[in-house]
Design goal:
By secondary structure, the protein is an all-alpha fold. It has a two-stranded antiparallel ribbon with strand order 1-2. Strand 1 and strand 2 form a beta hairpin. Helix 3 packs across helix 7 and helix 4 crosses helix 7. It is flat. It starts with a helix and ends with a helix.
Length: 302
């Protein structure tokens, strides 16, 4: 009986020690998450229902911020521009990234160099990239318009100085910058497809296009779903590229929701209203992501 009690006490100490060791690894990360993410998120939901600026206390206003959003023309413009950017940016980046991955998945001389070149824009300073592209898009002396004039375009677009062409210019740069990152994800996905499937398809007489449709694309389904979800969230949150390239202009032609949140919160000092806009943006991203998961699950079941 004594030996059994001693064994239980010893086992209890071992469990307690292991638990303490486990928490010692978890607590630093959890503390950082709580202080930098969880607490600010909870405060965001609170301040969304208040009228608050940094120079005074928060005054509870209920749903007033959200009622104001319904009549805010600038917010509707920002939301429309965000959807515009998202609708075109996602498929263009998806196709560009997949095309690069298929091209650079072969055993070619110098393929590692070209993979690095394709990925390099993603890790380059967004400010430097935006400034370079602004010079390339310059209506008067930019190389892009000079080339267009050389091939016979008498009146090339104004690009970032035009209300009609500023958003397409931003989409082009965003696609060019992010395609390399998602290319790496597709390359990783291509490595998981068994080569036996391609060999069997060749034996059956399938050409390159048929192998792409019957083997590659189905094999990349999980990767493609992940890329689409990440692209969707990133597109709805686009901020830095537009802020540096166009600052939301000309006029409000490239104003997006993230920039509008920044404008209301840090320029106009309407932090309560900016918090409400943030909640709406979060709800949109969450809703779209849930729909994507449901569609993907339904497709997987079939």
């Amino acid at each position: 009986m004594t030996m059994r009690s001693a064994h239980r006490r010893r086992s209890g100490r071992v469990v307690l020690r292991d638990t303490a060791v486990g928490w010692s690894f978890l607590l630093p990360n959890f503390a950082g998450f709580a202080v930098l993410t969880l607490v600010p998120l909870a405060l965001l939901f609170y301040y969304a229902f208040t009228s608050w600026n940094v120079f005074g206390g928060a005054e509870w206003t209920g749903l007033e911020n959200f009622r104001q959003l319904l009549h805010d023309r600038s917010f509707r413009t920002a939301l429309t521009n965000t959807v515009y950017y998202t609708v075109f940016h996602i498929p263009l980046t998806l196709v560009a990234a997949l095309g690069l991955a298929l091209l650079l998945n072969r055993k070619l001389r110098g393929v590692a160099f070209f993979r690095t070149v394709a990925f390099f824009p993603y890790i380059t300073s967004i400010v430097a990239l935006a400034q370079v592209w602004n010079m390339l898009f310059s209506p008067g002396y930019g190389p892009i318009n000079q080339f267009l004039r050389a091939v016979g375009v008498d009146h090339p677009p104004g690009w970032t100085t035009s209300a009609d062409w500023s958003m397409p210019a931003v989409i082009i740069v965003g696609t060019w910058r992010e395609a390399g990152y998602y290319m790496l994800l597709f390359l990783a996905g291509l490595q998981t497809i068994p080569t036996q499937l391609y060999e069997a398809a060749k034996v059956d007489g399938a050409n390159a296009w048929q192998r792409l449709r019957a083997v590659t694309l189905p094999g990349l389904r999980p990767t493609t779903f992940f890329v689409v979800v990440m692209l969707t969230i990133g597109s709805f949150k686009v901020f830095d590229l537009i802020l540096v390239m166009t600052n939301g202009g000309p006029g409000q032609s490239t104003l997006v929701v993230s920039q509008y949140i920044y404008q209301k919160g840090f320029i106009e000092n309407q932090l309560g209203y900016a918090s409400a806009i943030s909640i709406v943006l979060f709800a949109i991203c969450f809703g779209v992501t849930v729909v994507q998961f449901l569609v993907n699950r339904r497709g997987s079941v079939r």
